[in-house]
Specification:
Layout (H helix, E strand, L loop, with lengths): L4 E5 L6 E5 L4 E4 L14 H23 L3 E16 L2 E16 L2 H15 L1 H6 L4 E8 L2 E3 L1
Length: 144
């Protein structure tokens, strides 16, 4: 299955727009250190958003199938970027999940583990070079 994203430059610097086949759009830019204007997310930030979004969809689908009542859901993605020669990559990525509702914390934990270990294509893509981990807080209580 081929996937296409079209990238259009929006100004004389690095401000760009990505458009998928369905017409959804997002804006990107370079950092001010290289002449960008911070008018959009940087491409490496998009990678973190992608792993957080991919895993979130998995987790919410699993919890929905288990008839868990999720009233509030968020994930914050943190990463350590390291320089490797001429490029940088993420060595460690941690997803911090916060879930509220009438749900079993063990089921939420299992849903995250299934996502990161089995279903999340972005996490699996990062896997060869990156350690992906998570934390979980359910109704204000940290789950180990």
């Amino acid at each position: 299955m081929a996937v296409k994203i079209k990238i259009n430059r929006l100004n004389e610097n690095f401000h760009m727009e990505a458009v998928n086949d369905e017409g959804a759009r997002l804006e990107m830019d370079g950092s001010d250190e290289i002449g960008g204007q911070n008018l959009g997310m940087k491409p490496m930030q998009l990678l973190l958003a992608a792993v957080g979004g991919c895993s979130s969809i998995d987790v919410l689908m699993i919890l929905k199938k288990q008839k868990q009542d999720v009233r509030s859901f968020s994930v914050e993605v943190e990463a350590d970027k390291v320089k490797e020669g001429d490029y940088s990559l993420y060595k460690n990525v941690c997803l911090h999940f916060k879930v509220e509702g009438d749900l079993d914390p063990a089921k939420a934990k299992k849903a995250i583990e299934l996502s990161l270990d089995k279903y999340c294509s972005v996490a699996k893509t990062l896997e060869p070079t990156t350690t992906v981990s998570y934390t979980l807080v359910v109704n204000g209580v940290k789950v180990d």
